[in-house]
């Protein structure tokens, strides 16, 4: 009789986590709940919406990105493959301690993640992109969030991906205390889009009907609701001109005074809807001395 002993060896396998914070609920995660009391304002309008490919009509409503984040997976606007959208807020975003705003997508899981680049601007013309990292090495429909940094869409629906303006360099065109616009650009998940170190970025691709990044909301943690910058002021030929930093959707009142005590209303006007500043000009007053100011009404 020959005795045979069979030994079954089970090799446990586990994925090696990446170097960045993990999914919502995981220890050390940077995800921010939609109900976080730090949020003080949300998107109030959009400057442009450039629709990418493979999106049906029901997902093409930018206004669904206005207001607070929800857990309704249908209350979103799709960017489509390679699409983009530029949004604004009641007041500028400013650089404070830690995260300054968070972007919400509608993913149903911690790993089916559709991604977008995030850019910001003070004037609506010059944009600067947040540095990003994607360590996903090949095409896949399942992404480990610990391999992602600086890309919107890292977290499932109901949880925002945070962005800190301190992570950006400060070119002359960007005022970190007056960030009026946030732009999201869908990332084609086939590896043609690159992160800041020129590595290919992969996410679920292709998809159809509601392709690309699905924007739920953007919540602001640090806002600048104080003074706004005067871009220029003074005499221009035979008149007076003033230009100031403004947010689309807001209204302003021009006032004048002979003594900075009694202020007289001159005109109310909306902010320029196409950029980050508004101007006003008037014929030179007959008085030898006059003071002018701009009052935000919203």
TrEMBL record:
Keywords: Signal
Signal peptide: 1-17
Organism per entry: Luteolibacter luteus
Protein name per UniProt: PEP-CTERM sorting domain-containing protein
Domain of life of the native organism: Bacteria
